[in-house]
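thought: fold this chain, then report.
action: predict
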Amino acid sequence: MDQHLPAPRAVTVVQLPDGSYTYADATHLPAQQQAPQQIVQHIHQAPPDRTVQRIALGSGVGAGAVAAGVYFGPLLVGVLTAIAANLAMLAFLAAVMAWGVVSVVKSVGGSDGKAASKRLRRR
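observation:
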């Protein structure tokens, strides 16, 4: 079945005169007296930073503790963010309710209500 497949072509990495590297088909390269320098260039994303894990493992903490830190660290950030959002919402509701109480006391209470709202505003 693989009789019908074309023969694999030799592809090498060569350095261009401007210093950059490119892939070239070896059959189309000019004959040289010296073989082109073989450059193995790995193009990939940078690996994740594992500095904290290395420090923890180097200080005698076990791999289980490091794995727990990796797992629970982002979880803790998420929980703290949710708590902060809830507290911000409660503070906003408290401010709106205080404004509503002051407005009702002012409008309904007459002169006594206005005096009471002035006293509250001073505090």
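thought: worth noting. The helical segments are 51-58, 63-108, 110-122.
final: tokens above.
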